[in-house]
Amino acid sequence: MKPDLRTIQGNDPADSYRLEDQVGYWLRRAYQRHMAIFAGVMSDLDLTSMQFAALVKLRELKAVSQTELGRLTGMDRATISGVVARLKRRDLVLYKPDPLDKRSRIIALTSSGEALLADAMQRIGRVTEQTLEPTSAAERESLLATLQKMG
Amino acid sequence: MKPDLRTIQGNDPADSYRLEDQVGYWLRRAYQRHMAIFAGVMSDLDLTSMQFAALVKLRELKAVSQTELGRLTGMDRATISGVVARLKRRDLVLYKPDPLDKRSRIIALTSSGEALLADAMQRIGRVTEQTLEPTSAAERESLLATLQKMG
DNA sequence: CCTAGATCGTTCGTATACGAACGATCACCG
DNA sequence: CGGTGATCGTTCGTATACGAACGATCTAGG
Q: What phi, psi does B134 have (nearest 5°)?
C-alpha cells in the first residue's frame, strides 16, 4: 500500500524526511490553533491559557504553594513565577505565608480572581468546541486517550 | 457508563471543569514532552526544533524568502525573523537579495548548515520514536490524521 | 545539635510566539 | 503616471518556556 520511500530514494533516512509527516509538527500546529482560539474567545478578559490554567487549579484546591501550582499546571518554577506575578499584579490572586515552611509561598484566588474565572469558565466550552470542530466524536475520544498516554 | 457530572454537581458547567479532561491541556503536555525529547537528542548540536524545521524546509526548497519560510514552518514574521538571525549568526544559512523584490530576503543553506542538518536528520527518527513510544501503531496513524485535521 | 543534601522561589540568559506600528517597496487601478 | 492598498522585514512590548546559579530554609543523619 505505502511504498517505502527509503527504498525508492536511497538508504539515507534524510531523503524521505518531510516536516508535514512529523507528529511534532502537527502537535505544534494543533496546539497553536488551540491557543489562537482561546485568545479569541477570551480576548476581552485579557487572560492567557496559562493564566486560566493556574486560576482553575487554584479554584479547585483553594490554596497551594507556587511551585506545586506549577507542577499541577505543567509549568516549571521559573515560568509559574512570572505567571503568578502577573496575576498578583492584577489582584486576581494573593500571597499567603506558609506557616510550616518559610521558603514557600501559598497562592490563593481573590474574589475578583474568582469572578473573572467564573466568566472565563462560562466560555471555555466554546474554545474546546472550536478546537475539536474538525473532528468526529470517535476521533476526539481517541485523540484525548492517545495524548494522555504521551503526556 | 460515564455519569454526567453536571447532573450530579449542578447546572454550572464550571463545576465539572477539570484541567485534566481538556484537549488543550494534553496537547500542550504532549508537545512539551516532544520538545524535551528533541532537545535531549540534539543537545550537542545546539539546535532547537524550530531551527531544525527551518533548515529542513531550506534543504527541500533550496531558497525561499524569509516570510515564506515562516509560513511553511508555522512561524509568523516576527518569530521567523529571530530564528533566521540566529541561524545566520552561526553561518548555517546565508542571505541573498531577491532580484525581483527589493523588500524580500532570500534565505539559503550554507555548507555548514547542510552538514549540521545531515547530522540532525540522522537522529530525528529517535525523537519521533521516543515521542510516540507510549502508543501503538494504530494510535499513531489515528493521532496524526486527527492532528492534521485540527492544524 | 549540626552539617550535607534537597527544596523553595528569584533572577539571568536565551529562544520562541505574536500583535502592532513602522518604513520601504510593490502591484494595480484609474 | 500617480496614488492607494497590500506585502516585506524590523522593532517593541508582553508572555511563555526552561536551564542554571543563587540565597534561604528545611530535612535527615549522625
A: -75, 0
Q: Which pTM value belongs to this model? A: 0.90
Task: Please report how the helices A49-61 and A77-89 are oriented relative to each other, as an axis angle in degrees rounded to 10.
Answer: 90
| Residue among B27, B74, B134 whose CB faces A34 most closely | B27
What per-residue confidence (pLDDT) applies to A16? 76
Tens-digit pLDDT string for chain A (151 aa):
444 444 444 555 556 789 999 999 999 999 999 999 999 999 999 999 999 999 999 999 999 999 999 999 999 999 999 999 999 999 999 999 999 999 999 999 999 999 999 999 999 999 999 999 999 999 999 999 999 999 8
Residue B97 CB closer than 7 angstroms to strand C?
Answer: no
Across the interface, whether the CB atoms of B124 and A17 are under 8 A apart is answered yes
Write down the mean pLDDT value for chain B.
Answer: 92
Mutate to test the interface with A, among B1, B18, B31, B60 (most CBs of A within 10 A): B31
User: Which residues, including other chains, have CB under 8 Å from residue A120's CB and lie 6 or more apart?
Assistant: A42, A45, A47, A52, A55
- DSSP for chain B reads ----HHHHH-S-GGGG--GGG-HHHHHHHHHHHHHHHHHHHTGGGT--HHHHHHHHHHHHHSEEEHHHHHHHHT--HHHHHHHHHHHHHTTSEEEEE-TT-TT-EEEEE-HHHHHHHHHHHHHHHHHHHHHHTTS-HHHHHHHHHHHHHH-
